[in-house]
Design a protein that fits this description.
The complex is a heterodimer. Chain A has one domain (37-324): YVTN repeat-like/Quinoprotein amine dehydrogenase (Methylamine Dehydrogenase, Chain H, 7 Propeller), CATH 2.130.10.10. Helix content of chain A is 1%, strand content 39%. Chain A contains one helix and 30 strands. The N and C termini of chain A lie close together (7 Å). Chain B is of the alpha/beta class. Helix content of chain B is 22%, strand content 24%. Chain B has a six-stranded mixed beta sheet. Classes of the chains: A mainly beta, B alpha/beta.
């Protein structure tokens, strides 16, 4: 019997929501790691019972937790994220150089093929890799060693490497996105990197079309078309048809093109979801109406999806890692809010149900489709 | 709970026990989140050989509970994390040098060494 497992990271712990393939009734388990920030929980595509979670607080630092039984039990694994060699400096908010300092792991990206191989995106921005199920971590220093790195500066949330996209068709190709440096691409398994920001335009930086310095919030890829990428930038929804060599704006008729997450339908590579947010200074939906926007044309033309979502007095945000899709025949879409709600649609966004109503602020949502 | 970890460190302070390399039982109180991680009660007892110092006590604690590595002292610098405090005998020892001797009442086991999460946050 097909089932779906939704992994939710929150400001005060992790939760695992499960349902059968109908996605009508949900069982909530948790909190796991209660009281801790869980920036991300995700599963291995190669072994869905292998989960990884990033657990941290300002008091006690970073832990990585691993489950080998689909989240029923967890074991802390390695938590030493040491920058390779001399750490060097990046720019701080006031424009002065600041030594690279590890704060937390924002995002974990397991290998599509090997449950023991997982990548971690860190603040201050760096990419780490474990090949032993999270026991030990090694930096891939070529990214932070890029010649532009001393000029990178943090966004409001810190200088985080928040998105890692692995190309399933080209094992050496991967993308990393950093706030506020932008997108970088590697074609050699993470050894060397180059900026992939041509076409981005950001009014908030001195040179609007600079090679680096863009506040990219999230990028998404459909595995069947790895050369097509979608991006939610600080402002602007963007699309690349050449694996990040160039980007074109596809914000089209969105009510606002500010936002955080972007997700792709699991079976329709041209169907894309975003959650428009009022502005960079008003991090809540326009008019107090929580609306997911869906494009079935790969951008430009967007339709609001509102059925089952609050359409008055709603002032929550949806963070960059807090939206996901399952891979059932009728695509399920899931997202969580800073108000602690998790919404699910079993019909590609046409109708939504509240599957958790009163969790802590949601930081991340992932969906696993189980056989 | 009786600990069985022994960490031998260089003593920087002379004393009968330090000079003889004798062991002492040090009581350590952990904050709630670290108790959960270590799967232990609020107070643990650790065996430290030589003059009891903050460094030796934390080394012994981490040797016995490896999951606590990095949660009290930063991995990269080895220093106390910013929101961790060390108290004992109604004194704030947070900024004492790691190799300074702990108060006699802690070294004798009469008083616990308190590891505290600073009051902050929401």
């Amino acid at each position: 019997m097909t089932a779906v497992r939704v992994l939710v990271g929150t400001h005060k712990g992790a939760f695992v929501l499960t349902s059968d393939g109908k996605r009508e009734h949900w069982e909530i388990n948790g909190p796991y790691f209660g009281g801790w920030d869980v920036y991300h929980v995700t599963g291995s595509p190669a072994d869905p019972d292998r989960l990884y979670a990033s657990q941290s607080t300002g008091w006690f630092g970073q832990l990585i937790q691993r489950s080998d039984d689909g989240g029923r039990s967890w074991q802390p694994v390695g938590n030493e994220f040491a920058y390779d060699g001399e750490a060097g400096t990046h720019l701080w908010y006031d424009g002065t150089p600041r030594p690279w300092t590890f704060t937390r792991v924002w995002h974990l990206e397991p290998s599509p093929a090997d449950p023991d191989t997982v990548y971690a995106g860190a603040e201050d921005a760096a990419l780490f890799r474990s090949a032993d199920g999270g026991k030990t971590w090694q930096e891939l220093p070529g990214l932070r060693g890029h010649e532009t790195a001393p000029s990178w500066a943090p966004g409001a949330g810190g200088m985080c490497l928040h998105t890692i996209v692995l190309d399933p068709a080209n094992p050496g190709r991967m993308f990393a996105a950093i706030s506020a440096a932008g997108v970088f691409r590697s074609d050699d398994g993470g050894t060397t990197w180059r900026p992939a920001n041509r076409g981005l335009r950001s009014e908030g930086i001195p040179d609007p079309d600079a090679e680096v310095g863009h506040c990219v919030h999230r990028i998404a890829m459909h595995p069947s078309r790895p050369d097509v990428l979608f991006m939610q930038k600080h402002w602007d929804v963007m699309r690349s048809d050449d694996a990040g060599e160039s980007w074109q704006e596809v914000s089209g008729d969105l009510p606002t093109d500010f936002g955080f997450p972007v997700a792709v339908h699991s079976r329709e590579p041209e169907t894309v979801y975003v959650v428009p947010i009022t502005s960079d200074s008003l991090h809540y939906p326009p008019d107090g109406r929580l609306r997911v926007y869906r494009s079935r044309t790969g951008g430009h033309e967007w339709e609001p999806l509102t059925s089952g979502l609050p359409q008055s007095n709603c002032y929550v945000n949806v963070l960059r890692d807090a939206m996901a899709t399952d891979s059932l025949d009728e695509c399920g879409v899931y997202f969580g809010t800073t108000g602690g709600q998790v919404y699910a649609s079993a019909d590609a966004g046409d109708h939504w149900e509240t599957i958790a109503a009163n969790l802590p602020a949601v930081l991340s949502v992932e969906a696993q489709t189980l056989p | 709970m009786t600990g069985d970890s022994t960490v031998t460190g260089d003593s920087t302070v002379t004393g009968d026990r330090a000079a003889s390399g004798a062991s002492a039982i040090i009581r350590v109180v952990l904050p709630a989140h670290l108790r959960t991680l270590a799967e232990t009660g609020s107070e643990v007892e650790l065996t430290v050989t030589g003059q009891a110092t903050q460094r030796l006590v934390l080394d012994a604690l981490e040797a016995r509970y490896p999951v606590l590595r990095g949660t009290i002292r930063d991995h990269a610098t080895g220093r106390r994390r910013a929101f961790i405090r060390f108290y004992a005998c109604e004194q704030d020892l947070s900024n004492e040098l790691p190799d300074s001797p702990l108060p006699g009442a802690v070294a004798s086991g009469a008083e616990p060494f308190l590891i505290v999460g600073a009051m902050a946050g929401g």
